[in-house]
Design brief:
- The chain is of the alpha/beta class.
- It folds into two domains: 182 residues, Rossmann fold; 204 residues, Rossmann fold (3-Layer(aba) Sandwich), CATH 3.40.50.
- α3 packs across α5.
- It is globular, with a radius of gyration of 21 Å.
- 50% of the residues are buried.
């Protein structure tokens, strides 16, 4: 098939970026002709399996976003702050590029807004992947945007939701939508896999030594912290029960709940990510907590096997528990807030680890005392038992959420 994969953002970092990159790679490796239309200026950094990247010029350099961030050569502005004329100009600029790339068998567009309007304006058959961030952060409560989403989704061949939770959110925000299919996101089970401690530490130090310089400042927040290699070497010089969080450092992600839960425990935390809440989290963190800044998959694939538990303490609903599934693929048991797409991932893993361990995989959102209880119970297990549970969690990921399985399901 000839597939135009439209995405308004980058190909690394956050969930929908990784999702787009992985689909491009899997579809290309499966023999399809894939062109990614996005704003990634450095596609050579990623393995796209042969897919090519086309970058549209944006009117006024304006990029509509749901969470404010920085983008090279662009001015990121909340979608809710765009005028109707600016929205229309953005849609047409992207649709022009898609039409120039025609013909295609399918336009696969990410995000209800602005994916559905762009797909509709392309004039080709299109399908839309609802990620959730656009629904929760931009469209919910905005009658005009919700109506626009509903009108343009009506022309979509299929609308994909990554979880039952996102299907419910979609209906709540835009009203009933026909032809919704549930296909969860995927995990690279070849990249995220169990490793021995020596293998993992050697790999992590090698990747950290290859990091670019980071002089600090807001413009460098997407880079790993300076001298991470030396800090990792000191941190992991001794084996100690270790809990890891990786994701955005914003209040809605609930990292503060993890830090409160781990205070006083015979354990330590690694906090991976960037965001405007980092300074407050560092002030709250127990002594010995390691903040790394932003890390890429090349780091995380080695960091995760060095940890005993991964915690996803989001207060705000999540479309899918991607980080929980990635941790499980690496053989690390995840503990997640008991809501939204996170809970659905926990159910899938729970079917493999058994009822006793399954009860430890979730906790009431925001309840640091309950999270502490789960951590005490898991870390109190013998190391051999924790490894057995981690391998069972990986089996759940392989059968349900590998990218090969997900990519095929989407096209089928």
């Amino acid at each position: 098939m000839r597939i135009l994969l439209w995405h308004g953002y980058l190909l690394g970092g956050t969930g929908s970026n990784v999702y787009t990159r992985a689909l491009a790679r899997e579809w290309s490796l499966a023999g399809h002709h894939v062109t990614v239309v996005c704003q990634e200026r450095h596609p050579e950094r990623y393995d796209l399996g042969g897919a090519r990247v086309v970058v549209p010029d944006l009117p006024g350099g304006l990029l509509p976003v749901f969470v404010l961030d920085r983008y090279e050569g662009l001015e990121a502005r909340y979608l809710t702050d765009f005028t109707p004329a600016q929205r229309d100009a953005y849609v047409e600029a992207n649709a022009v590029v898609l039409r120039e790339l025609a013909p295609a068998d399918l336009v696969f567009a990410n995000h209800v807004l602005l994916g559905a309007p762009v797909g509709a304006a392309s004039g080709m058959r299109f399908r839309v992947k609802a990620h959730g961030s656009e629904l929760e952060y931009a469209m919910r409560g905005d009658e005009e945007l919700s109506r626009w989403g509903a009108e343009t989704l009506a022309d979509a061949e299929v609308v994909y939701a990554g979880s039952e939770h996102i299907r419910d959110v979609l209906e709540d925000v835009v009203g009933h939508v026909d032809r919704v299919e549930i296909v969860p996101p995927g995990v690279d089970v070849d990249e995220f896999r169990p490793e021995t401690r020596d293998e993992a530490l050697a790999g992590l130090l090698e990747e950290a030594r290859a990091d670019p310089p980071n002089a600090g400042g807001a413009e460098e927040e997407r880079l790993p912290d300076e001298r991470n290699a030396a800090r990792f070497a000191r941190f992991f010089a001794q084996e100690w029960p270790t809990v890891v969080y990786f994701g955005k450092l914003i209040e809605n992600k609930g990292v503060q709940v993890l830090l409160e839960a781990i205070a006083g425990l015979d354990a330590r935390a690694v906090v991976v990510g960037f965001g405007d809440f980092r300074e407050q989290l560092e002030a709250l963190a127990p002594l010995g907590t390691l903040f790394t800044g932003a890390l890429e998959h090349r780091h995380l694939r080695h960091l995760l096997p060095l940890c005993d538990v991964a915690v996803v303490p989001s207060i705000f609903p999540e479309a899918f528990g991607m980080v929980a599934a990635e941790a499980a693929a690496a053989g690390v048991l995840p503990v997640v807030s008991a809501h939204s797409g996170l809970a659905e991932v926990a159910v899938g893993i729970g079917e493999e680890v058994g009822p006793v361990a399954s009860a430890l995989l979730t906790f009431p959102a925001g309840d640091s005392a309950a999270l502490r209880e789960r951590l005490v119970a898991i870390l109190g297990q013998p190391v051999r038992r924790r490894r057995e549970l981690g391998l069972a969690a990986r089996r759940a990921v392989e059968s349900r959420w590998s990218w090969q399985v997900v990519a095929a399901r989407l096209l089928n």
